Amino acid sequence: MISATIFEAKTNFSSLVKVVQKGEVVTITSGRRKTPVARLEAIRPVKKKRLGALETPGFVLSEQFFEPLPDEELRLWNEGGE
Questions:
Q1: CA angle 8-13-19, nearest 5°?
Q2: Looking at the predicted structure, is the pLDDT value of residue 27 above 60?
Q3: 40/28 Cα distance (integer angstroms)
Q4: In the 8-state DSSP scheme, what is residue 67?
Q5: Which residue ranges make up each domain of the chain?
Q6: What is the rounded CA–CA span in Å between residue 41 and residue 67?
Q7: Rounded distance, CA 41 to CA 47, Å?
Q8: pLDDT (tens digit, 9 = 90+) per residue, 53-79?
């Protein structure tokens, strides 16, 4: 983990962001005792949900897949067909 004072963080912000983008975490400190006051870390984009074995590039499940089934269709599934 990398540590930087508030002054160092202000002076080298662009460099610290590049370090953070590579997966490091930077602790921002304050005062003579260098008390930790903040943490700078990367935000990872949320990956789209994929169906286990179907990790084929280009195959992505739509959000509709995760919505509940309509009542009529649920009834058919639960009663074993028509």
A1: 105
A2: yes
A3: 7
A4: S
A5: 2-40
A6: 33
A7: 18
A8: 555 666 777 888 888 888 888 888 888
